[in-house]
Every structure is written in structure tokens, then in C-alpha cells.
């Protein structure tokens, strides 16, 4: 072990794991949910380390390099070849992607 | 030209790109011969290594022929035209399998992108073509670049040519192993938390993560967009620098790519060892104490301290420094990176491209099945972590907190740049290459493999790993970390280190399992990993 481990209170319940999986649109098997519950809690214990730092007056850094907003010239450009893009469609109808219905149905 | 003997072709694969550049211009060898020699060696030796996910002989040879035609035209036009060719002209290169090549695969090591055909070239693919480089194929990687061993590839692990029972590091393990095993002189990787430097260290090659914004990510599968950068591998500093020179620079299609000139120093590093070493005189290097924690491999610690002593002996000024927030970087990184990943990977919905499971159910059941079956365990873990960290009620406690800690990490570095340090020197990784399966049971153990590299990503800095000897017969990497946009100085430092250690016995050592790769009955890395 190189850096110290941190052990603390588990924070995620099985129901939490199922809820997060739903938010993430991940269909997980029972054994995956069980395994993730343990692993996620173990990883979350490492996060507890951050509570040692007082960051009330520290601004967040979301972007590390300072760039002015750069606007590109508004010129007509060729877009991607529709045939090449549509060739990747799992299911298509002519020049359209076929998607499952999101309204109505059952 | 008459066909070469296999031995002569193999000899070509062991040359540096800068040697090949000279031979190409002199007409001693053709780009086609170079491509053919590397393709032959790759096909012959990759069963036991599995560094590649696809090799496109036909495309590579066509690109080589085009490079030869440009060479002939330049030769006819005169010395100026020949000199104007990029050092990468005619040189074979491998791309990590998350870089788009129009008409080719880009799996990112994932089942969810199996069968996907890129409809366009990445910016760096265009740049490599413009430079005249010859793309041989695509290399193996941890799925979506999430991992430190290449064991998380959905297509099976890559082995380390120094010991086929060990990992090459990751996530760009295929790119590092292919260069170490003489399958290609140079390759492209990406580095989000150490994914170029750590495998470079473990495979005994040179690898750089450039400053955030140095290379366009257009056409490269995203993992964590505030951390991802593209960078080169080579068997020495000059080769890696020339490859970076070919791909770096502003691209309007990646708004984070910076309009900052790419220094031509990258293609004019000194050839002579003494001249290179002379650069060190009076240079000031900081040695961050936090990168030498109690419990790191004794052999790694010894090699790094010898490396620092060699820099000092060559006239560099070496001073202990502190980066006090280093111990918080791992936790902050493992909030920021998964949060960004969970957002980036939301695009894999099975609607427009990639793996799709459609059982006649509604859209939600299709999403759940597509993503549940398409992603592997580590990717699911990170999506779960990131989704949780960004979810209602936890955003401030996790994500915002991590971004604030990121500010503290960056300030630690900024303070040292303000004090005039030319670079910081540290280990690249806390250990040498580990055995298959050694860290797969506990995700946190795997995450710790990037403890010495990921703070650099959090601060957006450039870092380079250069070989500095062996521990237990396995390579150790010395890391130089620099201020933003100091890539040329980092390459000079790495080149200088090559100069001062040119006489060391380890410099001439070759990966010890190269001979085993020649055995047609050599087990695949997946078979070796399964035995454990």
C-alpha cells in the first residue's frame, strides 16, 4: 500500500445503488448490484478524505487553461456524409433512424 | 528494390524514427519497405502480446506508397523540398483504438462500440496524413481508457514484452507495448490520469502527456473532457517529440485546443549525447516529497534517486519541494473523472450507432439492456460513481468539493512555477509492472497505480516519463512535470537524461520476453490471465 486507505461509514444502501443505476440507465443484474454496493461504498470511503480540507473560500476549477472565447468564422462547411453516418444505425428506415416509441404505447 | 530478407526487415524495425527519416530521405529504404517490415513483425509477434485490436495492411501500404511518391517528388524538386518534409514522413505509427480513422473501427476497447465504423477522421489522423506518417493500425486499451493495466479491455488484456505474465500498464497499454516490442517505432495514446506516462514507465519507453489544450481531441472518444489529452510514445525523446510536433496545434473543432504556437524545438532536439546533457547545467528541478511515500517499491525509489543524482552530477540544481495537496488528488480525481465520464457516456444509447439491444420493449428497456450489456464492469463502476456524485443532494458534497480541491492542487504547482523551477522530477508510477490479476479484485488498488500521475492531469500540466533503469528486471520511469506549454523543455530534459545515462548498461537492454513472442505456440495474454 502506497497511500493510506480510509475506512468510514458506508453511505450507499442497496436501494441507493438501484436508484443510481436507474438514473444512469444501466440495466444491472442482481449480482452486479450486490458487487457494486460493496465496491462503491469502498470507493466512497476514499472520498471522506476530502472533508479534512476547508474549502469554503476556495473557488472551483472546472477548466484548467485560460482561453478567451474563440468564435469560428461563420462559413458554410461540408457536414458528415449522411450515408456514412446512417450506415452505423442499428435500425434505419431510409434516411431515418428507427427509435422505440417514447410516447403512448403500452 | 528487391525484397528484403526477414532479418534485414527486422533490423529496420529496431531503428528509431529519426534514423528512419534520414534513411528515407537518402533513398536507402522506402516507406513501403518500412511499413511491410513493421506489419510483418507485428503479425508474427502479436499472439503473445495482443497489443493490437486491428491491423490494416492494405491501407498502410497504400499510405506508404503515397509517402514514397511524395518523397520521389521532393527528391526531384531539390534539397529544400526534401527538408520541408516532416520528420514523421514515411514513418509507421499506431493509434490507440479511440482515435477515429474514416472507414475504420474505433472500439475504445468496448463492446458497445463493436462494429462502429467512424464516418470521419480525427484531427490528429488528418495531421498525421498531412505529415506523411503511415498508420499501421489500432492498439488495445482499457475500455474507454478507464484503467491502469489494459486488463479492462473488452477484447482481452495486452501483455508486457518485458514479462508476458505482467500487464503493460494502462490505459494506453497496447500503444506502449507495441513500441517496446518493436512493432511500431511510435504510437499515439491518451492520458486522462496517467494513461500514457504510466504504461510508458512499465514498458520502458518514452511517453508524454502534453498540456491540456495542446492537441485537439476532435474525433477521439471522450472519457473525461476536462482531463483528456492526446500524446506520443516513442523509444526515445526525439521520436516522441517529433510525433507530438506532427499532431499538436489549434483546431477549430475542439474549442479547448489552444491557439499557441507549437515549438519547432520539438523536431530539433540535440542528436549528440554530450550536447543534450549540457542543457542540464544550471537548470533547477524541484523534487516533490509527496511523490515518495513510505511503502513505494524500494527498487523504484532507488532508481529514481539515482536518476536525480545523475541530473545533479550533470550540473542541474536539485531542491526538495512540497506539493501539500497531493494526498487529496486521488479522491478528487475519482470524483471529477467519473462525473465527466457518466455525462460523456450518456451518448451510448443504442439509437444512432454502436451496440444496440432491441427486444421489442419500450425505449427505457432498450437503453437499460443496451448499456447493461454493452459496458464492462469498470465502466459501469465509473458511470455509477459519476452519476451518484452529480445526483441531487450530492453535487455540492462531492463534485463541487472536488473542483475546489482541484484549485488547491493547481495552486501547489503554480507556486513552484512562480519560484522559477524548470521542472519537477518524480517517479512516474509507485511500482513496476504488476502481474495479471494483481489489482483487479480491489478497484482502489488499481486506482493507486496512478497516484503519481493524476495530480498532473488535475492541474492540466504536461508530464513526460523517460526510462531510468530496471528494478527486478522490469523498467522504471522517471517523470518530469512542467509548467503549462513547457513540452519542449520537458523533451529537452528527457533527452538530456538520455545523454547523461547513455553509457549505462540498462540503456542497451531489450525487453526480455521478445524471444518468447517469436514462438508460434506462445499463450495469449488472455490465456495467461485466466490461469491466475
Describe the structure.
The complex is a heterodimer of chains A (about 110) and B (about 525). Chain A has helices spanning about 15-25, 30-45, 80-85, and strands spanning about 90-95, 95. Chain A is mainly α and about 110 residues long. A two-stranded antiparallel ribbon of chain A has the order 1-2. In chain A, β1 (about 90-95) and β2 (about 95) form a beta hairpin. In chain B, about 40% of the residues lie in helices and about 10% in strands. Chain B has helices spanning about 5-15, 15-25, 30-45, 55-75, 80-85, 125-130, 175-180, 195-205, 235-245, 275-280, 300-315, 325-345, 365-375, 375-390, 395-420, 445, 455-460, 485-500, 515, 525-530, and strands at about 50-55, 90-95, 135-140, 185-190, 205-210, 230-235, 285-290, 315-320, 425, 465-470, 475-480. The radius of gyration of chain B is 22 Å and the shape is globular. Chains A and B meet through α1 and α2 of A and α12, α13, α14 and α15 of B.
Order of helices and strands of chain A: HHHEE
Q: What is the class of chain B in the CATH system?
A: Alpha Beta
What is the CATH topology of the domain at 1-56 in chain A? Histone, subunit A
The most extensive contact between chains is: A-B, 57 and 80 residues
What is the architecture of the domain at 1-56 in chain A at the second tier of CATH?
Orthogonal Bundle
Largest sheet of chain A: 2 strands, antiparallel
CATH architecture of chain B: Alpha-Beta Complex
| Contiguous runs where pLDDT drops below 50 for at least 5 residues of chain B | none
Instruction: Output the structural class of chain B.
Output: alpha/beta
Given the C-alpha coordinates, what overall shape of chain B results? globular
User: What is the distance, rounded to the nearest whole angstrom, between the alpha carbons of the first and last residues of chain B?
Assistant: 48 Å
| Low-pLDDT segments, ≥5 res of chain A | 1-10
Count of individual helical segments of chain B: 20
**CATH fold category name of chain B:** Amidase signature (AS) enzymes
Amino acid at each position: 500500500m502506497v497511500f493510506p486507505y480510509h475506512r468510514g461509514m458506508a453511505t450507499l444502501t442497496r436501494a441507493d445503488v438501484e436508484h443510481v443505476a436507474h438514473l444512469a440507465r444501466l440495466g444491472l443484474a442482481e449480482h452486479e448490484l450486490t458487487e457494486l454496493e460493496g465496491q462503491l461504498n469502498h470507493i466512497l470511503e476514499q472520498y471522506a478524505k476530502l472533508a479534512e480540507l476547508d474549502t469554503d473560500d476556495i473557488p472551483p476549477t472546472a477548466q484548467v487553461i485560460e482561453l478567451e472565447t474563440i468564435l469560428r468564422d461563420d462559413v458554410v462547411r461540408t457536414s458528415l456524409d449522411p450515408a456514412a453516418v446512417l450506415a452505423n444505425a442499428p435500425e434505419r428506415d431510409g434516411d431515418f433512424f428507427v427509435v422505440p416509441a417514447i410516447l403512448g404505447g403500452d | 528494390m528487391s525484397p528484403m530478407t526477414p532479418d534485414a526487415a527486422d533490423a529496420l524495425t529496431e531503428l528509431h524514427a529519426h534514423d528512419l527519416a534520414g534513411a528515407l530521405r537518402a533513398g536507402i529504404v522506402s516507406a513501403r519497405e518500412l511499413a511491410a517490415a513493421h506489419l510483418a513483425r507485428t503479425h508474427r509477434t502479436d499472439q503473445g502480446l495482443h497489443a493490437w485490436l486491428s491491423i490494416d495492411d492494405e491501407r498502410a501500404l497504400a499510405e506508404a506508397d503515397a509517402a514514397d511518391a511524395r518523397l520521389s517528388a521532393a527528391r526531384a524538386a531539390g534539397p529544400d523540398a526534401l527538408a520541408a518534409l516532416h520528420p514523421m514522413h514515411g514513418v509507421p505509427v499506431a493509434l490507440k483504438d479511440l482515435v477515429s480513422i474514416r472507414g475504420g473501427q474505433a472500439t475504445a476497447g468496448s463492446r458497445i462500440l463493436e462494429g462502429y465504423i467512424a464516418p470521419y477522421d480525427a484531427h490528429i489522423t488528418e495531421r498525421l496524413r498531412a505529415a506523411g506518417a503511415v498508420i499501421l493500425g489500432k492498439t488495445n486499451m482499457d475500455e474507454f481508457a478507464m484503467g491502469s493495466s489494459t486488463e479492462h479491455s473488452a477484447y482481452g488484456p495486452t501483455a508486457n514484452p518485458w514479462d508476458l505474465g505482467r500487464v503493460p500498464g494502462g490505459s494506453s497499454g497496447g500503444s506502449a507495448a507495441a513500441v517496446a516490442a518493436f512493432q511500431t517505432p511510435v504510437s499515439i495514446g491518451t492520458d486522462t490520469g496517467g494513461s500514457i506516462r504510466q504504461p510508458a514507465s512499465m514498458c520502458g519507453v518514452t511517453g508524454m502527456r502534453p498540456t491540456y489544450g495542446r492537441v485537439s481531441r476532435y474525433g477521439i472518444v471522450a472519457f473525461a473532457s476536462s482531463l483528456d489529452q492526446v500524446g506520443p510514445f516513442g523509444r526515445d525523446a526525439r521520436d516522441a517529440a517529433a510525433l507530438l510536433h506532427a499532431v499538436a496545434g489549434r483546431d477549430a473543432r475542439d474549442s479547448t485546443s489552444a491557439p499557441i504556437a507549437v515549438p519547432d524545438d520539438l523536431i530539433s532536439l540535440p542528436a549528440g549525447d554530450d550536447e543534450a546533457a549540457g542543457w542540464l547545467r544550471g537548470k533547477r528541478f524541484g523534487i516533490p516529497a509527496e511523490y515518495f511515500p513510505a511503502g513505494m517499491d524500494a527498487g523504484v525509489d532507488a532508481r529514481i534517486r539515482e536518476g536525480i543524482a545523475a541530473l545533479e552530477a550533470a550540473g542541474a540544481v536539485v531542491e526538495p519541494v512540497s506539493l501539500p495537496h497531493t494526498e487529496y488528488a486521488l479522491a478528487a480525481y475519482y470524483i471529477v473523472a467519473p462525473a465527466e465520464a457518466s455525462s460523456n457516456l450518456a451518448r451510448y444509447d443504442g439509437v444512432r450507432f454502436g451496440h444496440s439491444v432491441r427486444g421489442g420493449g419500450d425505449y427505457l428497456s432498450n437503453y437499460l439492456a443496451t448499456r447493461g450489456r454493452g459496458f464492462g464492469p469498470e465502466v459501469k463502476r465509473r458511470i455509477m460513481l459519476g452519476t451518484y456524485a452529480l445526483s441531487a443532494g450530492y453535487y455540492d458534497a462531492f463534485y463541487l468539493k472536488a473542483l475546489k480541491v482541484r484549485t488547491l492542487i493547481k495552486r501547489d504547482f503554480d507556486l513552484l512555477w512562480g519560484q522559477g523551477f524548470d521542472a519537477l522530477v518524480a517517479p512516474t508510477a509507485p511500482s513496476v509492472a504488476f502481474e495479471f490479476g494483481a489489482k483487479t479484485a480491489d478497484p482502489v488498488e488499481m486506482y493507486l497505480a496512478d497516484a503519481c500521475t493524476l495530480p498532473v492531469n488535475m492541474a492540466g500540466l504536461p508530464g513526460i516519463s523517460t526510462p531510468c533503469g530496471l528494478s527486478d528486471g522490469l523498467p522504471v520511469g522517471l517523470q518530469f512535470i512542467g509548467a503549462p506549454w513547457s513540452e519542449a523543455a520537458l523533451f529537452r530534459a528527457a533527452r538530456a537524461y538520455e545523454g547523461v545515462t547513455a553509457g549505462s548498461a540498462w540503456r542497451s537492454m531489450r525487453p526480455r520476453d521478445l524471444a518468447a513472442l517469436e514462438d508460434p505456440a506462445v499463450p495469449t495474454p488472455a490465456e495467461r490471465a485466466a490461469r491466475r
